Amino acid sequence: MAKKNPKEPGKTRQLLRVYKITAKNDPSALWVSILGFLLVLGASFLVGWLVNGFGSFGFWLWIVTGVLSAVLTFMIIMSKRAEKNAYMQIEGQAGAVGAVLDSQIRRAWRTSSMPIAVNGKSREAVYRMIGPAGVVLIGEGSSVRVNQMLDDEGRKIQRSAPGVTVHKLKVTIDGGVRLHALLKTVYKLKKTLTRAEVSAVANRLDALAGSSALPIPKGIDPMKVRAPKRKG
After folding, report:
1. I want to staple 70 with a disulfide (CB 3.0 to 4.6 A). Which of 25, 37, 137, 140 is the partner?
2. Which pTM was predicted?
3. How many alpha carbons lie under 13 Å from residue 172 in its C-beta half-sphere?
4. What is the mean pLDDT of each run of 10 residues along the chain (232 residues)?
């Protein structure tokens, strides 16, 4: 008789596990969340007492609402701190920016977790976001090479889509945008494009990127192509 696969932990257990890990790595997260819980609950108690008087039906209604709001506040704070902690765990690793871009992107923005430029030796990369603020180039790395890669990609965009605003950001631990603050920084940029213009710019850049790729002859498997042998 085949053995049954062990049941996966439910969402509540998964959430509690995440909170435990967060509290272990960031002890202040738990105290800040508890403080938020108490403040919301205390505010509900005070408002219920002032508006309806102690012991009335309206007072207890405020208490119930306050408890639910306090629990929600606790969960929101812990979730935000857990997200920040998770980003800090992968910060500095190759592909960390791609992981962020693959998680929580607003619908108004178009991007990909795949970089548009990569340095094969250092594994430093440049990613691109297109949205209401224009084109945002995100460099992953701290060396001078990243600045050159950002400048090169910026010039390509200006040639392909003249007049479009191009922002350049560097995600680094020292002297740049921190990984956990990347999307918040991008979303605060001033809007310069409408939704239709965002689509037009994105389609144009995607088409140019596709046309710049080397053509592959029909009937040849690109995974089996071998480099020609050198003579001599």
Report:
1. 37
2. 0.68
3. 15
4. 54 76 80 92 91 83 93 90 81 84 81 87 89 93 85 92 92 82 91 91 81 40 40 45
